[in-house]
């Protein structure tokens, strides 16, 4: 699972990503948690806990698992999978095609604007709406030219070629 959730409020997930993250959460809360508890119990039965490497390793794994559970619960609590309107306007849930000003159309790039948690479940790059390019393009329409400041500090111009709803 990705370690970078959206920084504020609601996040957009594809329906497929939402279902897979729910399944992962249930797996972590069920079989994974049960197996760790069993290992802790078995290690405790071995006696002296101060020098019991298996016990300490299992407790550390338990902490990581509980952290992953909390993170997934927060993502799913704030997640929406609503299909955006097919209106050519850049918004979350859209597959955006753009090119740098001056480039030819065959140099265009495409990405999904949504939560980074989608990355493992889609066949296109995912940009966060908080990323410099994602933030700059929000609300732009097909044909618009938009300036944004790249992480290098350089101002770049991009042309929106298309913005259409993502479909699983």
Features:
3 helices, two-stranded parallel sheet, 168 residues, 5-stranded mixed beta sheet, alpha/beta, 7 strands
Textual characterization of the structure:
- It is built from three helices and seven strands; from the N terminus they run E-H-H-E-E-E-E-H-E-E.
- Helix 1 runs antiparallel to helix 2 (53-77).
- By secondary structure, the chain is of the alpha/beta class.
- Strands 5-4-3-7-6 form a five-stranded mixed sheet.
- The chain is elongated, with a radius of gyration of 21 Å.
- It starts with 10 loop residues before the first strand and ends with a strand.
Quick overview of this protein structure:
With 168 residues, the protein is of the alpha/beta class.
What's the β-strand tally?
7
Q: Order the strands across the largest sheet as they lie in space.
A: 5-4-3-7-6
Rg on CA atoms, Å: 21 Å
Question: Pairing-aware structural class of the strands and helices?
Answer: alpha/beta
Which residues sit in consecutive blocks of at least 5 with pLDDT less than 50? Answer: 1-8
Following the backbone from N to C, one meets helices and strands in this order, namely EHHEEEEHEE
Q: Helical amount among residues, as a percent range?
A: 25-40%
Terminal Cα span: 19 Å
The proportion of residues in beta strands is: 15-25%
What is the average of the pLDDT values? Answer: 90
Main beta-sheet strand count, sense and barrel state: 5 strands, mixed
Shape: elongated
Helical segment count: 3
